[in-house]
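Reply to dn_fold:

You asked what the input looked like. This is it:
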Amino acid sequence: MDGLFMRSIEDNIPLEMIYLSENQELSQRKLIVKEVNDEYIRAYCLLRKQMRTFRRDHILSVMPESRTKSRWIH
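and this is what came back:
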């Protein structure tokens, strides 16, 4: 997971994340990581269009952003 976070920071690459909030709600986010520490990540959330802080122990899954066919159709 740390490798993906560092790649997102260094190359400005969006990641997709499955996150469990404090109130036990699941959400799928697309984000660009800006800062990482032992407990949290700070990232620009493409869903909310603002900087957000995510608890690392609430991140269930993280992967490079999947591209859909519609992005490649002109």
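The first strand starts at residue 15 and ends at 20.
Hope that clears it up.
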